[in-house]
């Protein structure tokens, strides 16, 4: 028994070392990005490169925020990502609740259509979607970057399992007490599926933050660009300052890194809680 425990401890130690090495390898590009933010272009191109800057240079960040509307790009990204995440969670919760708890004609067929939409890439219908936005005169507006991303088959499918796992007796008891359908949904069901709502919000927030193609088509003026599009425009402009581009990429990556570290426990719990029916 002692030998078995010793072998298990040795195996765990080796596994932890391997995982640590892999984690460090994945973090190396991020470390390189952050350190190059504080180097001049000459130091970035220097061979062999320095691991850390000899002199911490803040000129890249100063040029980014003074010469470019970087702060406005950050605000735009937060507005688009936050409202996309919030409203898409609400719409997905309403749809998932209807499919899981209500009964209507054609329910199964309609649910299969919603699930099948997950397999259709957005690029296949981006042309007609763009035409609709143009006809609504939404180009270069927040609603153009938010509204087309609200209804998602993935969000409906994800929350469906949460609502389906709730015993029907809870809903029936509330109906007997005189609660209407909206009250049951808002005051009874939503608090129960809160982990799933949180996980879906984080997923949608990150997806909207990293969106490139659709926001590139919608944002025409420099002030309406999101951070992702703004940083990409720095790479397209005729600008020899590679440090400025690196600083922009670092600023774009930091919010997502912070969100992951702050909410990783909630995300892991929410992403798996509805997968098992108790």
UniProtKB/TrEMBL annotation:
<dbReference type="InterPro" id="IPR035906">
    <property type="entry name" value="MetI-like_sf"/>
</dbReference>
<dbReference type="Pfam" id="PF00528">
    <property type="entry name" value="BPD_transp_1"/>
</dbReference>
<feature type="transmembrane region" description="Helical">
    <location>
        <begin position="73"/>
        <end position="97"/>
    </location>
</feature>
<dbReference type="GO" id="GO:0005886">
    <property type="term" value="C:plasma membrane"/>
</dbReference>
<protein>
    <submittedName>
        <fullName>Carbohydrate ABC transporter permease</fullName>
    </submittedName>
</protein>
<keyword id="KW-0813">Transport</keyword>
<feature type="transmembrane region" description="Helical">
    <location>
        <begin position="242"/>
        <end position="263"/>
    </location>
</feature>
<feature type="transmembrane region" description="Helical">
    <location>
        <begin position="109"/>
        <end position="130"/>
    </location>
</feature>
<dbReference type="InterPro" id="IPR000515">
    <property type="entry name" value="MetI-like"/>
</dbReference>
<comment type="similarity">
    <text>Belongs to the binding-protein-dependent transport system permease family.</text>
</comment>
<feature type="transmembrane region" description="Helical">
    <location>
        <begin position="184"/>
        <end position="209"/>
    </location>
</feature>
<keyword id="KW-1133">Transmembrane helix</keyword>
<dbReference type="GO" id="GO:0055085">
    <property type="term" value="P:transmembrane transport"/>
</dbReference>
<keyword id="KW-1003">Cell membrane</keyword>
<feature type="transmembrane region" description="Helical">
    <location>
        <begin position="142"/>
        <end position="163"/>
    </location>
</feature>
<keyword id="KW-0472">Membrane</keyword>
<keyword id="KW-0812">Transmembrane</keyword>
<feature type="transmembrane region" description="Helical">
    <location>
        <begin position="12"/>
        <end position="34"/>
    </location>
</feature>
<feature type="domain" description="ABC transmembrane type-1">
    <location>
        <begin position="74"/>
        <end position="263"/>
    </location>
</feature>
